[in-house]
Design a protein that fits this description.
By secondary structure, the chain is α+β, with helices and mostly antiparallel strands. 32% of the residues lie in helices and 23% in strands. The protein has two domains: 194 residues, Beta-lactamase (3-Layer(aba) Sandwich); 167 residues, no CATH class. The strands form four sheets. Strands 2-1-15-14-13 form a five-stranded antiparallel β-sheet, with helices on both faces. Strands 11-5-4-3-12 form a five-stranded mixed β-sheet. Helix 1 packs antiparallel against helix 10 and helix 6 packs across helix 7.
């Protein structure tokens, strides 16, 4: 009799679960059948993280422009190839000279990270020689918009970036400019432009009181000069490193960089992380080296092989399916403890999700957005009221509605899963 009751209870729960899934599928399909979604391209895949059960799939195998959802793939790649701390630089000591080269570390003298480890290391050495020819990446990624050269979200890439490769300008009675080397290159003006295309001449509107970050044009000579000013000593540039085993100096905590990349949707950090990851695979820094390695190894089982060209998602050449993003999110979920993983992602009601998905009363969404013109995606982890973890990717391309309307529809769907699964 006892066994019979157990079986009855089991089948009741099973029927209830099937009924819940069917109800959610039906209500979600009903939303996608409305006129709102008629003239745009939408994909939405949701799985149960515990048992990999597919709860809903709408165009999950179709390719979309991922925008900053690409940073999820960058996060996974970095977590596979890097250790707990970012490699800050590689070096060789010979006699009284330190020979060094960059790893692409984006944190050196960066205004956010304020890490002095690499700087303190260099100050201990009187004779420093710098190698800057170890990257084959161009300064801009494939498919980046050339006219965005003057905006904070598109600094140049490089093997040895300084200050995040931006000039930071603010006003407190008088202008504050970092790096100070550019003090005479900043002009107050009524113009709305930030920088000349071909030169490091910067403009700060006379009406402004905010902080402005403007990418500067990088060069070997400028890197040498900035570093000399910071260290207060002369540095030599060489064409190659000595033929000897290189040591690695490690700097900032990797999780600190990952979290800032995702919470602020920082394109510079994302693209530099691909370069840093390549430093573990080759002496030559290359985003493509990291991308090719990951696609041929950890991501070789993806059923829809992506077109992947940068770390940030600035390029419209990138193409990923919701299914591929969900598979990568599941790999992260299986690899990183939940509390640590969710902390890396923006939380509903905060950061890039500040005005959306706040939950009532607890946060229920830990996810990364991805936006370009006529593109808005969000992928990550959803916590239901019943205690389950769902993994999802929701992609919207080619819409003409205001993005706020797109987000409103997404939020209704997310809340339905949260409340009823």
């Amino acid at each position: 009799m006892k066994n019979v009751l157990i079986l009855i209870l089991f089948f009741s729960l099973l029927v209830g679960c099937v009924g819940t899934k069917s109800s959610i599928k039906k209500s979600t399909h009903k939303v996608f059948d409305t006129a709102f979604y008629k003239n745009q391209f939408t994909g939405f895949l949701v799985i149960d993280a515990q048992n990999n059960d597919t709860l809903f799939n709408f165009n999950g195998e179709k390719y979309f422009t991922p925008a900053s959802n690409t940073k999820i793939v960058t996060l996974y790649s970095a977590s596979e190839l890097l250790m707990d701390s970012i490699p800050a630089l590689k070096y060789v000591k010979q006699n009284d000279t330190l020979y060094m080269e960059g790893t692409g570390d984006p944190t050196f003298l960066h205004p956010y990270f304020k890490s002095n480890k690499a700087l303190s290391f260099l100050k201990k050495h009187q004779n420093i020689t710098l190698h800057l020819n170890n990257s084959i990446d161009t300064k801009y990624g494939p498919g980046w918009a050339w006219e965005d050269y003057a905006y904070y979200y598109q600094p140049e890439k490089g093997a040895f970036p300084l200050y995040g490769n931006v000039v930071t300008i603010s006003r407190n009675e008088e202008l504050r400019i970092t790096p100070a080397l550019f003090r005479d290159s900043v002009f107050q003006t009524s113009s709305i432009k930030n920088r000349n295309l071909e030169s490091n001449h910067f403009y700060y509107g006379s009406w402004r009181n905010d902080t402005l970050e403007i990418p500067y044009r990088t060069s070997a000579l400028l890197t040498k000069t900035l570093l000399e000013n910071e260290l207060n000593k002369k540095i030599q540039i060489v064409e190659r490193m000595p033929d000897a085993k290189k040591e690695t100096l490690f700097g900032v905590s990797s999780d600190t960089v990952y979290k800032h990349m995702l919470h602020e949707s920082d394109n510079f950090l994302a693209d530099q992380l691909l370069l840093v990851a390549s430093s573990t695979l080759s002496d030559t820094l290359s985003s493509k080296t990291t991308i090719d390695y990951m696609l041929q190894n950890q991501l070789s089982s993806l059923r829809q092989q992506p077109r992947w060209v940068d770390g940030s998602g600035l390029s419209r050449y990138n193409l990923f399916t919701p299914e591929s993003i969900v598979v990568i999110l599941k790999k992260l979920y299986d690899k990183i403890p939940s509390q640590r993983l969710f902390d890396l992602f923006p939380t509903g009601g905060e950061g890039t999700l500040k005005n959306w998905y706040a939950g009532n009363p607890e946060p229920y969404l830990y996810a990364k957005t991805g936006s370009l013109g006529n593109v808005h995606n969000i992928s990550g982890y959803l916590l239901t009221k019943s205690g389950k973890v769902l993994i999802f990717s929701f992609m919207n391309n080619h819409f003409r509605h205001p993005s706020s309307e797109v987000k409103k529809h997404m939020q209704q769907i997310f809340e339905n899963f949260r409340d009823h699964y």
